[in-house]
Design brief:
- This is Iron hydrogenase small subunit.
- The protein folds into 3 domains: about 80 residues, Roll (Ubiquitin-like (UB roll)); about 100 residues, Alpha-Beta Plaits (2-Layer Sandwich); about 350 residues, Rossmann fold (3-Layer(aba) Sandwich), CATH 3.40.50.1780.
- Helices cover about 35% and strands about 15% of the residues.
- It has 19 helices and 18 strands.
- Strand 6 and strand 7 form a beta hairpin.
- Helix 8 packs across helix 14.
- The chain is globular.
Length: about 575
């Protein structure tokens, strides 16, 4: 590796020649503030918060894009640098909605944090006109409040990185603002509800549509029987909202917190994940044996499904007809569980805790009423962030809670279900069951390492029952577009494809905890979160979905057989082509 010698604040360093000043400083334990910069996503040097002095340079330079060179001398905290940063903050505040006390990002807002650190309390030096702002709450999943936008363009970059690119800077000069084409509301453009723009936003300009009040209203309605289900990845991320290290598994405390909030049953969506594998593996085997449409593509990511409906409607026959684990669990709660407990399904409220803002859209799709017309499989979706707010609102001391277990009615699951939260997890879980079924025996080698890891596109060929099965695992919609274009052109030769909307899968979903850029730019959040899930999988006594005794009981007592009439009626769905505008 090529190295260069530099000095930062008088301290000599040897750093890789391809580093920026920002990276070099971080390697020395010096955090240079940023507002627009996100590594590999938005590296444009626009906000000017990261300016530093470089000996010999005519002006301050943006550390996030300025490369190091041999003998460079950098100063990160001179009076000139600090004054420049303070002036930038004051100018941003002069056109900013400063209602911090009621903002969902208060205490997790990068603009607020920098103002506190630099002692910037107001913007009286630059008082004047305020730009017109837009408030858009037209979608199920998101609220956009441009009065809190600082034009960092992170959201624009995140949306472009998801291929859809439905937002961008409109107008010019003082009137510049982020919006959709022709100022359309977000609901009128082919947004896929992934929420990656929310995670990228440094302020409260973009937030998920909060439904905590709806949950509390249901909990306080004596006519309602309120149950909750939690997705596989939530246990690996919720702890971050309470100051725990990234990748801490807080399953037991999460269950305890939900019970104390007042839910009558706390269920694990991992049950639905195991159920999904039973149906999906059966569907794949049927397609292979009977000349069905291949490659079959997974359907548990609602953002990806909506993307397919908008951008690749001709490939909808390739998409598995299986509902997502969230919807399967909801359908089983309102049918099997309701029947066993003698509860009117119309009185049951199913709340799901998801890593994904697209899940808020998914529950409103057609063909999601397994228990009967007008009875939705799932009623309310909260993101990981909303759950953290609800726990704090209910004054629950999360960090001191004991570890408790899910309720047994739908609380038993396998390692295969746990790894759904990471890219490649659905594929690996499906292969574990498909291999056993096709081989007619229990296959001992069940860790499919080739489909693990953070790469956006992974391919592998596995020999199963004498057949070469070619698979692909894709996360992020730019990568999905690349692979689907190959499929559309008759290329690739795939049999089975897993697609996750968000880069890295659910552990990096649009509803997950928002880490500041100072952490996000230098920490592999996806890998740390995913490792918590793979560790749990490795330590579980059952690691194949078809070995789950509760799943076996569900089929024996209620569903019949995988892919059978009742299973298809409750656990499968349909898709519709959607126009882009």
């Amino acid at each position: 590796m090529n190295m260069v010698n530099v000095k930062i604040n008088g301290m000599p360093l040897s750093v890789p020649a391809d580093y920026t000043i920002l990276q070099a400083a971080k390697s020395a334990g010096i955090d240079i503030p940023t507002l627009c910069y996100l590594k590999d996503l938005n590296e444009i040097g626009a906000c000017r918060m990261c300016v530093v002095e470089v000996k010999g340079a005519r002006s301050l330079v943006a550390a996030c894009v300025y490369p190091v060179n041999e003998g460079m001398e950098v100063y990160t905290n001179t009076p000139k640098v600090i004054e420049s940063r303070k002036m930038t903050l004051e100018m941003l505040l002069s056109v900013h909605n400063k209602a911090c006390l009621t903002c969902k990002r208060s205490n997790n807002c990068e603009l607020q944090t920098l103002c506190q650190e630099l002692g910037v309390e107001d913007s009286t030096s630059y008082e004047g006109a305020m730009p017109d702002s837009t408030y858009d709450d037209s979608t199920y999943h998101l609220v956009r409040d441009n009065s809190k936008c600082i034009l960092c363009r992170r959201c624009v970059a995140a949306c472009a990185n998801q291929h859809v690119a439905v937002i961008g800077p409109n107008s010019r000069g003082f009137d510049t603002h982020i919006g959709c084409m022709f100022e359309q509301p977000l609901a009128n453009v082919p947004c896929v509800s992934c929420g990656q723009c929310i995670v990228a936003c440094p302020t409260g300009a973009l937030t998920e549509k909060d439904q905590c009040a709806d949950v509390l209203a249901a909990l306080n309605d004596p006519e309602k029987y309120v149950v909750v289900q939690t997705a596989p990845s939530i246990r690996a991320t919720l702890g971050e909202c309470f100051g725990m290290p990234v990748g801490t598994n807080v399953e037991g405390k999460m269950v305890a917190a939900l019970r104390r909030i007042g839910f009558q049953k706390v269920f694990d969506t991992d049950f639905g994940a195991d159920l999904t594998i039973m149906e999906e593996a059966h569907e794949f085997i049927e397609r292979v044996k009977n000349g069905g449409t291949l490659p079959m593509i997974t359907s548990c990511s609602p953002g990806w499904v909506k993307f397919c409906e908008h951008y690749f409607p001709e490939l909808l026959p390739n998409v598995s007809s299986c509902k997502s684990p969230q919807q399967m669990t909801g359908a089983m709660i309102k049918t099997w569980f309701a029947q066993k407990e003698g509860i009117d399904p119309s009185k049951i409220v199913v709340v799901s805790i998801m890593p994904c803002t697209a899940k808020k859209f998914e529950i409103h799709r057609d063909d999601m009423e397994g228990a009967g017309e007008g009875i939705a499989d799932t009623d309310i979706v909260l993101t990981t962030r909303e759950l953290a707010r609800l726990i704090k609102l209910c004054r629950i001391d999360f960090n001191t809670l004991p570890d408790e277990a899910f309720d047994p009615a739908m609380g038993e699951s396998t390692g295969a279900a746990v790894i759904f939260g990471s890219t490649g997890g659905v594929m690996e879980a499906a292969l574990r069951t498909a291999a056993d079924t096709l081989e007619g025996r229990s296959v001992e080698s069940i860790e499919y390492q080739e489909v693990r890891g953070g790469a956006g596109i992974k391919e592998a060929v596995y020999k199963i029952a004498g057949m070469d099965v070619k698979v692909a695992v894709v996360s992020g919609l730019n990568n999905a577009n690349e692979v689907l274009t190959k499929v559309k052109n008759g290329e690739g030769g795939y049999h089975f494809i897993e697609i996750m909307c968000c880069p890295g899968g659910c552990v990096n979903g649009g509803g997950q905890p928002i880490q500041p850029s100072s952490v996000r730019n230098f920490t592999d959040l996806r890998a740390a979160r995913a490792q918590a899930l793979y560790t749990q999988d490795a330590n579980m006594p059952l690691r194949k979905s078809h070995e789950n005794p509760l799943i076996q009981k569900a089929y024996e007592e209620f569903l019949g057989e995988p892919g059978g009439h009742k299973a298809h009626e409750l656990l499968h769905t349909t898709y519709v082509p959607r126009s882009r505008y």
